[in-house]
Amino acid sequence: MRLLTAAVASLALMVGAQTVSAAPVEIKFSHVVAENTPKGKMATKFKELVEERLAGKVEVKVFPNSQLFGDNKVLEAMLLGDVQMAAPALSKFQKYTKQLQIFDLPFLFKDMEAVDRFQNGPDGQKLLGSLQKKGLVGLGYLHNGMKQLSASQPLKTPADAEGKKFRIMTSDVLQAQFEAVDAVPLKKPFSEVFTLLQTRAIDGQENSWSNIYSKKFFEVQPYITESNHGLLDYMVVTSAEFWMQLDDDLRVEVKKALDEAIVYGNSIAAQKDAADKQAIIDSKRSEVIEISDAERAQWVKAMKPVWKKFEGQIGKDLIDAAVAANK
Ligand code: LMR
């Protein structure tokens, strides 16, 4: 009897399967920052556009604040099929390619317009394919902004950083950058930074205004030096396996929605950068230190030799192309 019931049930399932249309493709988008950031807002916009245009066909679920995966796990999870999209900082790809290390070189780009020129030019576009051999597809660049240095003590010249512990992303270039000023860099996940700063386990960190504001680092870091010494940008990625198994027409539509969401994210990045900096100043919790040209020149002199160290891994031509984008 039990056998018969099971047989009837499975027959019903099979019949049912023919009449019920296929379940929507699920895109889990995992990121580590707050929702009120360029990346958070871009992901939400992408979800809205997909829901509007591909209802019943594709479903996007956004997981912010390292809820699903932290930054050191997300790419492994993507290759296992546990998450379909993410936009890690360009500093977090070194296990997969050495070329993207270019974006970490200190004092490389003079402003975000130069970053745009390089990313949209032939070299930048080629770098979107640099993860291909590892099974990942670069779908586009997303901006956050320039990085600033926050600390428990005022940092005006490189000598002020000597012996201090700084949290960095998982990047050997960033490690070399802090070692160049005799500081002590520690590779730690983004989700741990606030507690490390609050408990004074570390002295400082580098990040964009938007991350310093949205993750409340400014509440536990009394000084922020406006150094603009490096770039915090992202690459939106997916796995080749997931991407290629999508129907052609769906893939085109999903990419279109993503491109539009990226344009939107990039269009608000500069405005958020300025607004979040102002909100930090207004809070009076942290003093924003402006450095003079002479002081800045000292940081450049100390950190720029890092370029030479990584020239072999990145490629001199690529570095030259990035420098040329400053003009
Ligand atoms: C960091 O880890 O400091 C940032 O990359 C976080 C982010 O994704 O902006």
What does this structure look like?
By secondary structure, the chain is α/β, with parallel strands linked by helices. The chain has one domain: Bacterial extracellular solute-binding protein, family 7 (D-Maltodextrin-Binding Protein, domain 2, 3-Layer(aba) Sandwich). The protein has 13 helices and 9 strands. The protein has helices at residues 2-19, 38-53, 74-79, 112-120, 122-127, 172-179, 193-198, 209-214, 240-245, 248-283, 293-303, 306-314, 316-324; strands spanning 25-30, 58-63, 85-86, 136-151, 165-168, 184-187, 204-207, 223-239, 287-290. The strands form 2 sheets. It has a 6-stranded mixed beta sheet with strand order 6-5-7-4-8-9, sandwiched between helices. The chain has a 3-stranded parallel beta sheet with strand order 2-1-3. Helix 2 (38-53) runs antiparallel to helix 10. The termini are far apart. The model is unreliable at 1-19 (pLDDT under 50). Residues 32-33, 71, 89, 144, 169, 190, 207, 211, 232 line the site of (2S)-2-hydroxybutanedioic acid.
